[in-house]
Amino acid sequence: ATHMMWFRKDLRLEDNTALNYALTSLDKKDQLLCVFHLDEQQFRIGCHAHDYFFSTLNNFQKSAKEKGVFIYFLSGDLFSAFDNLKQQFPDWSDIYFNLDNRGYGLKRDLTALHFLESKEIRVTTFEENHLHQATEITKPDGSSYKKFTPYYKRWLSLSKPMFQPDFNIPNIKQIKQDSEFFKEGDKLFKKLLDLRQTDFSLEVGEERATERLNDFVLNQLDSYEQERDFPGIDGTSRLSSHLSTGSISIRKVFHACQAMPSSNGKDTFIKELAWRDFYHMIYHYHPDQYKEELIEKYRQLPWQTNEELFNQWKNGQTGYPIIDAAMRQLQQTGWMHNRLRMLVASFLTKDLLIDWRLGERYFAEQLIDYDAASNIGGWQWAASTGTDAVPYFRIFNPTTQGKKFDKDCLFIKTYLPELASLPAKFIHEPSTMSSKKQEEFQFQVGIDYPKPIVDHKLARAFALEWFK
Ligand code: FAD
């Protein structure tokens, strides 16, 4: 019989639950077909997310081939593709995949499941993208947690799933033909690769992800607690984009850290992995939270949509250097440091009172590590409308935050070269330069760099009233 492994956001061979299961289920007479469906609904052409995902998929197909695993692309409507496959491989009996457990992916998986079963194909699925699945951790009365701290206590007390190291493809029969059948998929895949504006090839894939993890665990985990808030330091793992494409398994990340000696850095890092599970759980119980505020009383807030201000924020032209440097980092690299995500989201929602949903959508286009649950969770946290969110009266001051977390302007200078030759105190507040100073440094506020688009003090006072 023919068995099928259907890859999706789990682009790895190592510790891939569905793949491992498929391999152990095969009989000597069976053959394995590995596929990836190029789903038009999920293309985000022109976005960093598209470029990053397709660079990863390209790397995955090539490196899997080197290890003897052949991956084929399906194109067009999913059900027609399955129908064609069934005609091509009449003995197709089984399919294995790791479930996409939310949003569009979940709906697709559920319909695919019914469709396949109606064709008498046995479907075996797994939930494996988190350390604890969404419904696994509940309060003693069975209801879901709303606050992180009690959730985390329970999360910590439970044992974590094991990691299966080293992938060795057993001696199984694989479909290796360069048949006509997969030509269309191949053509589309090449086109999608060509549509990339940025080629992330050098930083993607299983090997890079493991190198990054090992480097982080050996050299940075210990100091993670002290360094993780400073965007000028490479103090965080940068594993989020690998986790979002599935180039590395969350179990591997967890166990690599767990094996290290105790330290505050280790504890804090593991807590971040719990936040990832927490937001996943919240999203599961509130699948509509991309549309509406979790806290009901805030659903009536008259969020603004001012396009001019929104564009200034998007393009890093707000006149607040730490905000602008962060937004340009996002535009240029597709990634942004966590502290900066909190700051720019606070600035958009509290200083500009612009709808957090617009910010969330913009992040979805730009982020190479886009993850709906963490992103919506992060935005609702910053907008004070989510579960366990920052209270509305705690509004970040972008200037003091810049001085505190980028004291020597290492980060700001990288992304705002127009400020790089000024002394640090003016880099943090260029608009406070006197005419004499502007002349001395041949720098014109409002021309070389924008004046602040809002006065933070006034904006803060206004936001406090607005929320009240
Ligand atoms: P590290 O500090 O090394 O953390 C390790 C891992 O823990 C991360 O890779 C991530 O998987 C997880 N993690 C860390 N912080 C959080 C958090 N606050 N919430 C959930 N998981 C966390 N993270 C995403 O993966 N995708 C997103 O789309 C996303 N959008 C965000 C939007 C906003 C407004 C905010 C405030 C945060 C968002 N985050 C998102 C969370 C966090 O900013 C990133 O996970 C982190 O910056 C990724 O960098 P890192 O891998 O170096 O993190």
From TrEMBL:
GO biological process, one term: photoreactive repair
Catalysed reactions, semicolon-separated: cyclobutadipyrimidine (in DNA) = 2 pyrimidine residues (in DNA)
Keyword field: Chromophore, FAD, Flavoprotein, Lyase
UniProt site (Electron transfer via tryptophanyl radical): 303, 356, 379
Similarity comment: Belongs to the DNA photolyase family.
Gene Ontology terms for molecular function: deoxyribodipyrimidine photo-lyase activity; DNA binding; FAD binding
This protein's name: Deoxyribodipyrimidine photo-lyase
Entry superkingdom: Bacteria
Organism, as annotated: Vagococcus carniphilus
SUPFAM superfamilies membership: Cryptochrome/photolyase FAD-binding domain, Cryptochrome/photolyase, N-terminal domain
Cofactor dependence: (6R)-5,10-methylene-5,6,7,8-tetrahydrofolate; FAD
InterPro entries reported for this sequence: Crypto/Photolyase_FAD-like_sf, Crypto/Photolyase_N_sf, Cryptochr/Photolyase_FAD-bd, Cryptochrome/DNA_photolyase_1, DNA_photolyase_1_CS_C, DNA_photolyase_N, Rossmann-like_a/b/a_fold
Any matching Pfam family: FAD_binding_7
UniProt xrefs under PANTHER family: CRYPTOCHROME, CRYPTOCHROME CIRCADIAN CLOCK 5 ISOFORM X1
Location of the Photolyase/cryptochrome alpha/beta domain: 1-131
Binding sites annotated in the UniProt record for FAD: 224, 236-240, 269, 272-279, 369-371
Its EC number(s): 4.1.99.3
Cofactor binding remark: Binds 1 FAD per subunit.
